[in-house]
From TrEMBL:
Protein name per UniProt: DUF1499 domain-containing protein
InterPro entries documented for this protein: DUF1499 (IPR010865)
């Protein structure tokens, strides 16, 4: 008469193997150990485990750390601000990650039309009121989840840095109220590094304009 005893599972790099011991009740012969392989999965393919929410957060943190190590924020350009030779904001570089009201209308890649903060109002407001409205919209609107930070403010000029949520890319955005153009606001939005921006700068300007339109602002042209 035989007795079957089950051993603890043996853990190996391969899937778990169940082992059994066969022995007679009265026998001095060595125990016989037999192991049985588990059934193989179809086509020997193991599906990857689904990505959990915690893993997504951890990966985002890893990306942020990589961005800090490689300094994806870039360096602030020296030419930002109102140009001295001919009062205007700077032109865009040749790369496709910038829009500016200073560009030629024929430049479809870089040109964007100025705003008029009294264009849709029955009762015009002053530049000071328009500046407060602009700052309010800048601080309350986060297109593509880029975080805005106002770093420079004058009576007729505002400079904002927009930082991406993961790798820390920084875009420089400027707004200028020209003294000789009543109710007009010009702007420039550009990425510091890279050659293209998946249209983030143009989408940002559009999102800000749409919020300002609720206050009575208009665009000289649609875009």
């Amino acid at each position: 008469m035989e007795q079957v005893l089950r051993m603890a599972s043996m853990t190996t790099p391969s899937p778990t193997i169940s082992c059994y011991i066969k022995a007679k009740k009265v026998s001095k012969l060595p125990l016989i150990v037999k192991c049985q392989q588990p059934l193989e999965e179809p086509n020997n393919v193991k599906l990857p485990d689904p990505i959990t929410r915690r893993e997504i957060i951890l990966r985002s943190s890893e990306f942020a750390m990589v961005g800090a190590i490689f300094n994806f924020s870039g360096k602030k350009p020296d030419y930002l601000g109102v140009q001295k030779n001919q009062p205007a904001l700077a032109l865009c570089p040749a790369t496709k990650n910038c829009v500016s009201t200073s560009e030629s209308v024929a430049d479809l890649t870089h040109y964007a039309p100025p705003w008029n903060y009294n264009g849709g109002r029955k009762m015009p407001v002053s530049r000071d009121v328009a500046m407060k409205e602009l700052l309010e919209v800048i601080n309350s609107t986060k297109p593509d989840k880029f975080t805005p930070m106002v770093l420079e403010k004058k009576d007729d000029y505002v400079r904002v840095e927009y930082q991406s949520p993961i790798l820390g890319f920084v875009d420089d955005v400027e707004f200028w109220f020209p003294p000789v153009k009543d109710s007009i606001v010009e702007y420039r939005s550009a990425s510091r590094i890279g050659s293209f921006d998946f249209d983030y700068n143009r989408k940002r300007i559009k999102a800000l304009r749409q919020e300002l339109e609720k206050k009575g602002w208009t665009s000289q042209d649609s875009f």
